[in-house]
Specification:
alpha+beta; single chain; Cytochrome Bc1 Complex, Chain A, domain 1; 15 strands; 5-stranded mixed β-sheet; about 40% helix
């Protein structure tokens, strides 16, 4: 068991890799009551073309299989319901699937070791039949339709689809109604056996726990189970171009105020910077230009172009970063022009850059006080970089203004997609 300091955060992280390849991360926090445990596989919606373990040919599974599989892992052969098991100890359990990972989790205060054992057991005991797969399709169909009517979720999915050409990140995590009806139990077992091997998974526990106790419990649980020898997973790679699929699009939804979404697609492959540096620099730049305290934000509100703050986030693939900007506005084209002009005008001073670094450092300190943020930070590091950034505080301190300036000035803001979201009536 390795123990390392999370620098300047007064926290330790304990790490161990078992013989079957399962990685364990524990961050104890004795000043809280809860425990948050996650069991994650490096498998999400984008891994839909791969060579199944034990086979030689690459296959393509229907879109939405990873999300469908997440649902079906809760189906147990003995008929027991994991949600009922956790509720008996006053704990909550859940799961979620993203483009890059699938996570099973519980949160609670009591029976932690028992709950942890059960988490490992139910995730590692798949039970798929033709009948229970068929039953799930109607449930997921309703979930997909609900998201398609959601004005906060659906526009982002449409914009992402319009922004990418080859990469499967363009496809909704849940797939489509048509694709989920193509899924079979054989598809689920192939995906499960390929991506749910312990060597492709990790456990992260944060909260009021004793690390040695947690790691011992997981070791005992895993030594009683048999797993095939770990093999390298072969996944299809994609030659994603820099341009977008569709430059403009319009959809109508049940909203009262029109929206506009803009994506800027940047090639980040040969920047000479780490992905974390790239993400930080783009976050810095966007926040300084469009954030709640930016001059543009203040002016846009004063001119009644927007009434509330602009929302922005980014999506990363191996070669590209997609910056997504969303705002409610009745003056859609005027807002787009203002944002375009602002981004192309590089006028960030060293003082402003250093202020943004302090925001990053402050976020580290905030994260250290929140067991969910801590757990999420570990998950993101493993999924993106296959290692935990132990010195996140030092990372922000070392960010360089010259590197930032050079990177931002080389960004190409021409590859963009715009989505107009208008009221139905």
């Amino acid at each position: 068991m390795k123990k390392k300091k999370l620098n300047k955060l007064d926290l330790d992280i304990y790490e161990e890799t078992l013989d079957n390849g399962l990685r364990i991360f524990v961050i104890p926090k004795n000043d809280v009551n809860n425990v948050y445990a996650t069991f994650t596989t490096n498998y999400g919606s984008i891994q839909n073309e791969f060579v199944p373990i034990g086979e030689n040919e690459m296959i393509k599974v229907p879109d939405g299989v990873a999300h469908f599989l997440e649902h079906k892992v809760f189906e147990q052969k003995d008929g027991k319901d994991p949600f009922e098991f956790y509720s008996k100890s006053g704990s909550d359990c859940n799961a979620n699937t993203s483009n890059f990972k699938t996570t099973y989790l519980f949160v609670g205060q009591d029976n932690i070791l028992e709950n942890l054992n059960y988490l490992l057991d139910f995730v590692q005991a798949p039970y798929f039949t033709d009948e229970n797969v068929k039953k799930e399709k109607g449930i997921i169909e309703q979930e997909l339709k609900m998201y398609q009517d959601n004005p906060f979720a659906h526009p982002g999915e449409v914009l992402t689809y319009n922004s990418f050409i080859e990469h499967p990140i363009k496809i909704s995590v849940g797939g489509t109604v048509e694709s989920i009806y193509e899924i079979t139990k054989e598809d689920l077992y192939k995906c499960y056996n390929t991506f749910y091997h312990p060597s492709n998974m990790f456990v992260c526990v944060t909260g009021n726990v004793k690390p040695k106790e947690i790691i011992k419990t997981i070791k005992e649980n895993q030594k009683n189970k048999h797993f095939e020898e770990a093999k390298k997973i072969k996944i299809k790679t994609y030659n994603e171009p820099d341009n977008v699929e569709k430059k403009e699009d319009t959809i109508n939804m049940n909203i009262t105020i029109p929206k506009v979404l803009i994506s800027y697609k940047f090639n980040i492959e040969n920047t000479g910077l780490s992905k974390k540096q790239v993400s930080s620099f783009i976050s810095f730049y966007t926040n300084l230009k469009l954030g709640p305290v930016s001059l543009l934000n203040e002016r846009l509100k004063k001119d009644n172009i927007i009434t509330k703050d602009i929302v922005f986030y980014h999506i990363k693939t191996d070669k590209h970063l997609l910056l997504v900007i969303e705002a409610d506005t009745k003056k859609q084209k005027e807002l787009i022009n203002e944002i375009d002009k602002e981004f192309k005008l590089f006028n960030i001073t060293l003082k402003e850059f250093n202020r943004e670094k302090k925001v990053g450092i402050a976020s580290c300190i905030y994260m250290s006080d929140n067991i969910f943020s801590l757990n999420g930070a570990v998950m993101n590091d493993i999924i993106q970089d296959n290692k935990v950034e132990y010195n996140l505080y030092n990372f922000y301190k070392k960010l360089d203004y010259k590197d930032f300036t050079k990177f931002i000035k080389n960004l190409n803001f021409e590859n963009r997609s715009i989505l107009y979201v208008n009221p139905k009536n």
